């Protein structure tokens, strides 16, 4: 998901990670996995040598049980993996640091407590769904309104905390954080208030806050909501893109897709729609922002990001609706084609330029984790533990592998070197070909 609840080709994205060059060699150094969906925020990875086949007894370098529960994607840097977890009752929220080479847990850090957490009301989300973010020397963890912290990436020491960022998540937090320069940007789309807030990464102090401006249509004569629930909620994670030399933060919400200036939170443009409970993180490919709108009337839309103000009538290049539009798993793009998987296992390849379906294939199972693209391979991680690997860039479906682990995936994958870091419902795996 967004963390558990969620493209190359003409894409100019903000790279938040470390990519070096080995001395005396033309091989790229290990790339850090710095946030949800990786350093480009799009589920793509530079490595073309990720494992193709695995099982519980094949190509598992190590397997480590992770206490409690969490759907957050792990982050990886400088030989360490960080992830979050919470007790099933939502009373205790913790961070874990795992040694990337051995799978040994280095730090177990209880960070926040809550005596009366709001019930989740479903079995899809949890209390530890937002993914961490990491940069050299510092790791950031977030549990929505239950707390945000900055930790020393070596010692685990708490450098700062915030417990005053409020909203009613209603079904648990889900949006992951975004690192942008010296800002840590958080999304709070609750039933009571909807806003984005940027914190100074050094101090945790607020740099800017932007309340979403949405004309709700579910108000009574007194201006109060007629119904409480999911119609204002959101779980999506924003991305930062570059358009005509300027950077934009693309942020889905209930009833609208927004673009903001990441440096100060100014709204740049918006596209309105009739869906709610946005979960899927957008991608940017071939000059279009591509995003699934959410529940209600699910649509996948392609938007030209060069407008100002309300661009619903002028900049939506295409709309595709129907039951195959994903509600949870974020898509990927490769070679002018997009790939999306619905919650019930319909995998669709479509043209980025037009939204037109190229092929559709049922791959079986249910899907919450976001897709991963490595070279010309697409990885689809199922709730049951099944991973389907297919060839990208083809106009016909070609399956390369069908792999299975004992328990399935709610968290999206991470990558270290040429290995997969997979978080199942109970364990953390490092998958690499021997």
What attributes does this structure have?
five-stranded mixed beta sheet, mainly beta, 34 strands, single chain, globular, Methylamine Dehydrogenase, Chain H, 434 residues
At a glance:
The chain has 434 residues and is an all-beta fold.
Description:
The structure is a single chain. This protein has 434 residues and is mostly beta strands. It has one domain (44-431): 7 Propeller (Methylamine Dehydrogenase, Chain H), CATH 2.130.10.10. It is built from no helices and 34 strands. It has strands spanning 44-45, 60-65, 75-77, 80-86, 92-99, 105-113, 133-135, 138-142, 148-152, 158-162, 178-180, 183-189, 194-200, 206-211, 239-243, 246-253, 256-260, 267-272, 283-285, 288-292, 299-303, 309-310, 316-321, 332-334, 337-341, 346-351, 357-362, 372-374, 377-381, 386-391, 399-404, 414-416, 419-423, 427-431. The protein has a five-stranded mixed β-sheet, with no helix packed on it. It has a five-stranded mixed β-sheet with strand order 15-16-17-18-22, with no helix packed on it. Strands 2-34-33-32 form a four-stranded antiparallel β-sheet, with no helix packed on it. Strand 28 and strand 29 (377-381) form a beta hairpin. The radius of gyration is 20 Å and the shape is globular. The two termini are 29 Å apart.
